[in-house]
């Protein structure tokens, strides 16, 4: 039990705030790392590899993360994951003053890889943990979608903080702030929050605790949601990995330009998160209308970004804003839909499957897009991704638009 029972009424906001601050620090650190890699190598493939190091571990560890969450308890896994994030971020901060050249690049990628592994556990456990902080089952969808808003506010603030810290104090300060930001959620989990632990349902040892069991015992509509999301992300979720390269072509090569570009992406993500949060119940009911709608926004914006000749800066930034809104809405709605549509005992593993769908697909998308940029250029890459994404979105509207998701009433 929390030593501060008076805070129980505010614990959902406390958890949101702590998560938002750590998110801002994390994006400050990722901006710093991305700029260091871009400035030192000017390699699109290395930037894609950096994002892949963050996202692709989900393909390997999200299954274990979901299984551990459902088997051993979401709170225990969440606390351990936060300590892991702190240690991984510190590794990157310490590498800056101690290493140069290839050794520095290797250590930064290693730090990001470890952050990706710990993040897989953190996100999986956090999704299930949220259900222990609510009072009524119908509060789950709005609360989960609130994380999309808070996450993207952190994503808005973090890059300019990282960009300015790079200019004023150097990359070590940005990475140090990233590491320190994880102390707040750790302190909140240990001393400030008082979740309803009796409400958690854990899986029993054996085949009922496996990812395969969760997949087969989820509804067919949720399995289609996961597959559709993975396909959409494989096609069009490459901008996080190539952000420094895209920013260089749209704005300039200064670290602050990268901060502005990623902040515009984040502003769009906030808008997408707010729309999702305010319509969470309705959007859950019609999952493929929701996913296809956000995919359509993303595809149109990518086609707009393909128009590179004599394009006004305001137009490019508007398209960037829409890409942020579309992709954030897609990822957050997939996560929300799979949590609301799953029984409590499966939610850790369903969160793991969601991560595999959108972060695993996004990591592969970054590598594919980087190769296409090298071969054909950024404009053709945007045009190809936008065209395929447009076709997938229209297919979702036409073939799956009437699918209705039945909400599981147990929190």
How does this model look, in words?
By secondary structure, the protein is an all-alpha fold. The chain has 2 domains: 1-192, MFS general substrate transporter like domains (Growth Hormone, Chain: A), CATH 1.20.1250; 209-404, Growth Hormone, Chain: A (Up-down Bundle). Helices cover 80% and strands 0% of the residues. The protein has helices at residues 11-41, 44-55, 57-72, 74-98, 101-130, 140-168, 171-180, 183-192, 211-217, 220-236, 239-250, 255-278, 280-285, 287-305, 313-340, 347-376, 378-400. Helix 3 runs antiparallel to helix 4, helix 4 (74-98) runs antiparallel to helix 7 (171-180) and helix 14 packs antiparallel against helix 15. It is a multi-pass membrane protein. InterPro entries: MFS_trans_sf, TM_effector.
Total domain count = 2
Biggest β-sheet strands, sense, barrel? none
Percent of residues in helices comes to: over 70%
Low-confidence stretches: none
Element pattern in H and E = HHHHHHHHHHHHHHHHH
Number of strand segments: 0
Q: Averaging pLDDT over every residue, what do you get?
A: 86
Structural class determined from secondary elements: mainly alpha
**CATH hierarchy, class of the largest domain:** Mainly Alpha
CATH topology of the largest domain: Growth Hormone, Chain: A
Tell me the strand percentage band: under 5%
Q: Nearest-angstrom radius of gyration?
A: 20 Å
Distinct helical segment count:
17
Ends apart, CA distance between termini: 20 Å
Q: Specify the overall morphology.
A: globular
Specify the CATH homologous superfamily of the largest domain.
MFS general substrate transporter like domains
CATH architecture term of the largest domain: Up-down Bundle
Main location: membrane
Keywords: Cell membrane, Membrane, Transmembrane, Transmembrane helix, Transport
Membrane topology: Multi-pass membrane protein
Protein name: Multidrug efflux MFS family transporter
């Amino acid at each position: 039990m929390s030593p501060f029972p008076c805070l129980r009424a505010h614990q959902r906001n406390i958890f949101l705030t702590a998560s938002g601050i750590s998110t801002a620090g994390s994006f400050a650190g990722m901006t710093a790392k991305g700029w260091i890699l871009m400035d030192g190598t000017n390699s699109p493939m290395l930037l894609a590899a950096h994002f892949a190091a963050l996202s692709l571990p989900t393909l390997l560890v999200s299954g274990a993360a979901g299984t551990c969450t459902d088997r051993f308890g979401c709170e225990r896994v969440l606390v351990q994951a936060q300590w892991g994030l702190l240690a991984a971020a510190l590794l990157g901060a310490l590498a800056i003053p101690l290493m140069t050249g290839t050794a520095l690049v290797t250590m930064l990628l290693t730090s990001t890889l470890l952050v990706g592994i710990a993040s897989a556990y953190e996100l999986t456990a956090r999704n299930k943990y949220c259900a222990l902080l609510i009072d009524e089952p119908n509060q789950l969808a709005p609360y989960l979608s609130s994380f999309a808003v808070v996450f993207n506010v952190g994503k808005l603030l973090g890059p300019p903080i990282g960009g300015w810290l790079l200019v004023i104090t150097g990359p070590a300060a940005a990475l140090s702030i990233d590491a320190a930001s994880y102390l707040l959620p750790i302190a909140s989990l240990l001393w400030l929050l008082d979740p309803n632990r009796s409400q958690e349902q854990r899986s029993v040892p054996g085949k009922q605790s496996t990812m395969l069991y969760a997949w087969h015992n989820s509804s067919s509509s949720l399995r289609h949601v996961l597959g559709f999301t993975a396909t959409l992300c494989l096609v069009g979720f490459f901008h996080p990995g190539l952000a420094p390269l895209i920013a260089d072509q749209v704005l300039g090569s200064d670290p602050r330009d990268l901060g502005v570009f990623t902040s515009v992406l984040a502003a769009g993500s906030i808008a997408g998160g707010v729309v999702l949060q305010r319509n969470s119940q309705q959007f859950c009911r019609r999952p493929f209308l929701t996913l296809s709608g956000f995919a359509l926004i993303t595809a149109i914006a990518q086609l707009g970004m393909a128009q590179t000749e004599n394009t006004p800066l305001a137009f490019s930034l508007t398209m960037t804003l829409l890409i942020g809104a579309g992709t954030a809405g897609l990822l957050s709605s997939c996560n929300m839909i799979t949590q609301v549509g799953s029984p409590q005992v499966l939610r850790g593993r369903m969160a793991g499957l969601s991560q595999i769908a959108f972060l695993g697909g996004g990591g592969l998308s970054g590598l594919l897009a980087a190769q296409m940029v090298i071969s054909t250029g950024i404009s053709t890459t945007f045009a190809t991704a936008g065209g395929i994404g447009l076709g997938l979105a229209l297919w979702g509207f036409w073939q799956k638009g009437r699918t209705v998701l039945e909400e599981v009433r147990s929190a």
